[in-house]
Amino acid sequence: MLTLRLYMLQRITALLMAPLVLGHLAVMIYAVQGGLSAAEILGRTQGSVLWFVFYGLFVVAVAVHGAIGVRAILAEWGGVRGRVLEGAMWLIGLGLFALGARAVWAVTFGGLT
Amino acid sequence: MKAVINRAHPLWLAHVLHRLSGLALALFLPLHFWVLSLALTDPARLDGFLALTDQTVVKLAEYGLVFLLAVHMFGGLRVMAMEFLPWTAPQKTLAAMASALSFLIATLFFLQAL
Amino acid sequence: MSMSTLAVTIERSAGGQTTFKVPAHDNQTVLDVVSWVQQNADPTLSYRFACRVGMCGSCAMMVNGVPRWTCRTHISKVLEGNAVTIGPLRNLPIIKDLAVDMDPFFDKWVAAEGVHHGALTRNDPIADIDESSAARVTANAGIECINCSVCYAACDTVTGNDAYLGPAALQRAWTLLNDAKDEGRVAILDAVSGVGGCHNCHSMGSCTHLCPNDLDPMTAIAGLKRETAKTVWKRGR
To answer: CB distance from B2 to chain C under 8 Å?
Structure first.
């Protein structure tokens, strides 16, 4: 159920995310020392264009990547086909993007100020 | 079920691990995003959630998530190396290295979080 | 040695399984065991074989859930205790008992453009082929396929996606793509880029793991992925 175009999107987003995941893992390992707090997270991310771009890119890539990945699972393990499959893929992709974009917006421009 | 076990082999297991870790991450992400969005709507509640992360059970769950993320990334890099690079023979070694590295990173995370 | 018996369970298309007691011998293939059942215990048992020496590709069956060429699989290799379960190949429609309909397998072979695309006529001189060229070496790696469908039955992607062309057909497409005598490049790349194309492969490698001729369809499919990916950049999309 994967065409060349979906395959390329899947691989391109994967390559894009490899350094982002490493960065994210590094931040997590660093950030959890001494416990997590909202103030600590927001202190790092608020108003920072760099973090906005970093996690903004991450959200776009993960929405595309996750939607295509779950599509393959729905098709192969769930037997979903045709329009339902296309619809599910778009729903998952747009849903992940919307939730992710809201989260990035929240930690960059929202919150405690 | 017995037939599936009989057919199993290292690369097949690597594929199943990659698929399950990806699915688990896709299911976790909406929750993750929602919690972070609380920074916008309800900062006090965000702190409440983050306070949860001090508990051992939640720490173990986080350990699992970090492992899933690491294993999915290294597993994916393994697949792409196999697809795009000319060297293909040491596939099983790559698969083993991917899981080992993932465990390493997740354990590092766990130790830091203690 | 040959006094003992084997418990051979065979899956029947009428539903259910039948277990037969088969005399054990030192030298005995899975196909020998199935043949003994058909000749001595149940003449209604249907199965398929021809050459008995691993050339024709017609005797593949599921043995304890694993697809194998039964004529070249020694029974001692697959026995669990003294028992073995034999069923029809996975991922193909069953005709009767152990005989499956191979049409989908061969239809996909053609759908993957696994046919010769010639440009020369009988009046042209025979083109020289450099046996040591990289492309020829790549093509040679996949040409010993006997169409036994073991890889097709091994592949979980085929199980989950009836449109998927499968390892054997895609490997054939890859050998033709690397064959200097074949002119079907555009047709092949198009054929392996559709909904059932090479991009569905998840590199789980059961095809390569179980190919009785030690071929490597997974790597061949990876080659198709690379070649089709290149066309994306060339077309600018």
So the answer is: yes
Q: Which fold has domain A4-109?
A: 3 helical TM bundles of succinate and fumarate reductases (1.20.1300)
Contact (CB, 8 A) for B49 and B43: no
Task: Compute the average pLDDT of residues C129-151.
Answer: 95
Range of the structural domain that residue B28 is part of: 9-113
Mark yes or no for CB contact B30/A102 under 8 Å.
no
Sign of CA dihedral C175, C178, C184, C187: positive
CB of C96 closer than 8 Å to CB of C51:
no
Neighbours of chain C (3+ CB pairs under 8 A): A, B
The answer to whether the beta carbons of residues C117 and C176 sit under 8 Å apart is yes
CA distance B9 to chain C (A): 8
Q: ipTM, 2 decimals?
A: 0.90
Tell me the two tokens of residue B101: 């590295």
Among C159, C202, C228, beta carbon nearest to A4 = C228
Nearest Cα neighbor of C159 from C90, C84, C67, C56 is C90
Q: Is the pLDDT of residue B86 over 70?
A: no
Instruction: Look at residue B84 and tell me if it is in a domain.
Output: yes
Looking at residue C3, its pLDDT comes to 57
Per CB-CB distance under 8 Å, the chain A contacts of C197 are 2-4
0.80 cut: is pTM over it?
A: yes
How many Cβ contacts (< 8 angstroms) between chains A and C?
Answer: 38
The answer on pLDDT for C1 being more than 60 is no
Which chains are adjacent to chain B, needing at least 3 Cβ pairs under 8 Å? A, C
CATH assignment of the domain containing B100: 1.20.1300.10
Burial string for C101-138 (b: 16+ CB within 10 Å, else e) reads ebebbeebbebbbbeeeeeeeeeeeeeeeeeeeeeeeb
State the Cα–Cα distance between residues B2 and B19, nearest whole angstrom: 21
- How many CA atoms are closer than 13 Å to the CA of B69, on its beta-carbon side? 24
Q: Is residue B83 part of a domain?
A: yes
Q: Where do the domains of chain C lie, and which CATH numbers do they carry?
A: 5-100 (3.10.20.30), 103-235 (1.10.1060.10)
CA distance C80 to A29: 48
What average pLDDT does the segment B52-67 reach?
80
Which sequence spans correspond to the domains of chain A? Answer: 4-109
pLDDT at position A25 = 84
Residue scoring higher pLDDT (B31 or B104): B31
Question: Does residue B88 carry a pLDDT above 60?
Answer: no
B30-61 exposure pattern, b = at least 16 Cβ within 10 A, e = fewer: beebebbbbbbeebeebbebbeeeeeeeebee
| pLDDT for position B83 | 86
Query: Is B102 part of a structural domain of the chain?
Result: yes
